[in-house]
Design a protein that fits this description.
alpha+beta, 3 helices, globular
Length: 116
């Protein structure tokens, strides 16, 4: 239900990879969202997640959420949905043991390092 609502929401814009729009990856209770960087997409995603929480009782733990700013937003001071306690980063964010980073020098080594 949640994934369908996000995928079908035309106000949430993802990134296009090989002609396919990617908005989300979900595994068990972990989710990653890949948006176009617009405030509209971000606020609409949060609204959709909040509506899902109201109907399902499953709440987003916003204190564990990290928004990774990339591209032209990397050095921006913009933060959307200020009433929420998201962590905003221009450096890196992790999900499912995978670290996403903006540092081109360490991107490969960060992803390939094994955990002890």
């Amino acid at each position: 239900m949640l994934t369908r609502n996000i995928n079908n929401n035309e106000n949430i814009k993802g990134l296009f990879l090989g002609g396919t729009e990617v908005k989300q990856t979900i595994f068990a209770d972990d989710a990653s969202f890949t948006l176009d960087g617009s405030e509209k997409s971000f606020t609409e995603l949060i609204k959709t997640l909040d509506n899902f929480a109201t109907t399902s009782g499953l709440k987003l733990n916003k204190s564990k959420c990290t928004a990774l700013k990339m591209g032209t937003l990397k050095y921006s001071t913009r933060k959307w949905c200020n009433s929420n306690v998201f962590t905003w980063s221009s450096d890196q964010a992790s999900t499912l043991g995978i670290t996403f980073t903006n540092d081109k020098k360490t991107i490969t080594s960060t992803e390939l390092n094994t955990k002890n």
